[in-house]
Design goal:
Elements: H1 50-57, H2 61-69, H3 73-76, E1 82-87, H4 89-93, H5 99-104, H6 107-116, E2 119-121, E3 134-136, E4 142-148, E5 151-154, E6 157-166, E7 169-174, H7 181-193, H8 203-211, H9 215-222, H10 226-234, H11 238-241, E8 247-252, H12 254-258, H13 264-269, H14 272-281, E9 284-286, H15 291-294, E10 301-303, E11 309-315, E12 318-321, E13 324-333, E14 336-341
Parallel strand pairs: 1-7, 8-14
Antiparallel strand pairs: 1-2, 3-4, 4-5, 5-6, 6-7, 8-9, 10-11, 11-12, 12-13, 13-14
Length: 349
C-alpha cells in the first residue's frame, strides 16, 4: 500500500478591481453644468489568499486539513506569489487505504514534502504552460507538464480547472495527488519487494478477518470520511477507536464537515486536545447499538463517551441524533458499528 499520496490545496474566487480615471476637462462650447466630485465607488471585495480561497471552495477539506497539520498555513498565506496545484477531496479519497492517515502521522516529514511538491514559487497562469515544460517546486524537485488534445497534465495528474486567482497567487485544480521523485521511488521499491506472505490460517478465518475491519479502518476504506479520519488522527483517538470496544459511532460525511461555517474545521484542528476531542467523543457511544435498538428510543437521552448526552428522535423511518439525520445504518465492524449522519453534532456548552 502506498503511503505517500497526498497533499496540498485549493480553489475558487475571481474578483475584479476597477480603476477610476479622472474625467477629461469639458470642451469650451456649451457650458457644462457644475458637477460634484464623483461619488466614491464601493470598494470591490478583497481577493482571498490561497488558503482562504481553498476553504471557501468547500471541496478541498482534506488538503486544508493536511496543510494545517503540516504547519504550512502561514506560509501559504504569505506574500508569495505562489502557484498551487490543488488535489480535490476526491483525489485524496482515491489514494490507497491508510495513506492519508500515515502521512498525517508524520506531518513534518513526508506530508510536508508532498504538499510543497504541489507549490511553485511565482504566479504561473494556464497560458504560460507549454508541452514539456519543467518547473521547480518549493519542495525542490521539478514537475513536468504535458499538453495534448486531451488536456494538460502535471506529472500525469489532469488539470481540471485553471486560473483561480487569489490575493497571493493562483490555484489550478488537479484530479490526483502527485509525489516527489524520492517518495515515488520509495513506493516503487516497496511494491517490488512486497510479496504476500504465505499464511496457514483457515480460508474461512482469513475471509472473516478481511471482511471485518475495525471502526477506523472501515471509515478509511469507505472513502467519504476523510475529514473525520483526519480529525480522529489529529486528536490522537485512533488507538481508542481501534480498541476492543464495542463502540457505536455516528459518523459525519465529508459533505457534513464541508457544510460547517468557514474556518470551523481549521479552528478545531488547531485545538486537537480541546474542542476537537470533545466534539469527536460526542459522536461515540459505548456498546453496540444497532438500528433496531434505536427505533424504540424516541425521546431518549443517550450518554456519549465524552460524558454528554444527545437526544434520539424517531419519526416513522426518519431517525435523528439531535438535529442530524441518520442516513445509513448498521455498518458493522470488528469492534462495533457505524451509523452515517448528515451533519456534525456539537455538544451543548
Amino acid at each position: 500500500m502506498k503511503h505517500y499520496r497526498l497533499f496540498a490545496l485549493a480553489l475558487i474566487a475571481t474578483l475584479a478591481l476597477a480603476a477610476c480615471q479622472p474625467a477629461a476637462p469639458a470642451a469650451p462650447a456649451p457650458t457644462a453644468a457644475p458637477t460634484e466630485a464623483p461619488a466614491a465607488e464601493e470598494p470591490a471585495a478583497e481577493a482571498l489568499d490561497i488558503v482562504d480561497t481553498a476553504i471557501a471552495a468547500g471541496n478541498f477539506t482534506t488538503l486544508v486539513a493536511a496543510v494545517e497539520a503540516a504547519g504550512l498555513v502561514d506560509t501559504l498565506k504569505g506574500e508569495g506569489p505562489f502557484t498551487v496545484f490543488a488535489p480535490t477531496d476526491e483525489a485524496f479519497a482515491a489514494l490507497p487505504e491508510g495513506t492519508v492517515e500515515a502521512l498525517l502521522a508524520d506531518p513534518s516529514g513526508d506530508l510536508t514534502q508532498i504538499l510543497l511538491y504541489h507549490v511553485i514559487a511565482g504566479k504561473v497562469m494556464a497560458a504560460d504552460v507549454t508541452d514539456g515544460l519543467e518547473a521547480a517546486t518549493v519542495q525542490g524537485a521539478p514537475v513536468t507538464f504535458a499538453v495534448s488534445a486531451d488536456g494538460v497534465t502535471i506529472n500525469g495528474a489532469n488539470i481540471v480547472a485553471t486560473d483561480i486567482e487569489a490575493s497571493n497567487g493562483v490555484i489550478h485544480v488537479i484530479d490526483a495527488v502527485i509525489l516527489p521523485p524520492a517518495a515515488e521511488a520509495a513506493d516503487e521499491a516497496m511494491d517490488a519487494e512486497a510479496t504476500p506472505a504465505p499464511t496457514e490460517e483457515p480460508a474461512e478465518e482469513a475471509a472473516e478477518m478481511s471482511e471485518m475491519a475495525d471502526i477506523v479502518d472501515t471509515a478509511v476504506a469507505a472513502g467519504n470520511f476523510t475529514t473525520l479520519v483526519a480529525a480522529v488522527q489529529a486528536a490522537g483517538l485512533v488507538d481508542t477507536l481501534k480498541g476492543e470496544g464495542p463502540f457505536t459511532v455516528f459518523a459525519p460525511t465529508d459533505e457534513a464537515f464541508a457544510a460547517l461555517p468557514e474556518g470551523t474545521v481549521e479552528a478545531l484542528l488547531a485545538d486537537p486536545t480541546g474542542a476537537l476531542t470533545d466534539i469527536l467523543l460526542y459522536h461515540v457511544v459505548a456498546g453496540k447499538v444497532m438500528a433496531a435498538d434505536v427505533v424504540g428510543m424516541d425521546g431518549a437521552m443517550v450518554e456519549t463517551v465524552g460524558g454528554k448526552s444527545f437526544t434520539v428522535s424517531v419519526d416513522g423511518d426518519t431517525v435523528k441524533i439531535d438535529d442530524a439525520t441518520v442516513v445509513v445504518t448498521d455498518i458493522e465492524t470488528s469492534n462495533g458499528v457505524i451509523h452515517v449522519i448528515d451533519s456534525v453534532l456539537t455538544p451543548a456548552e
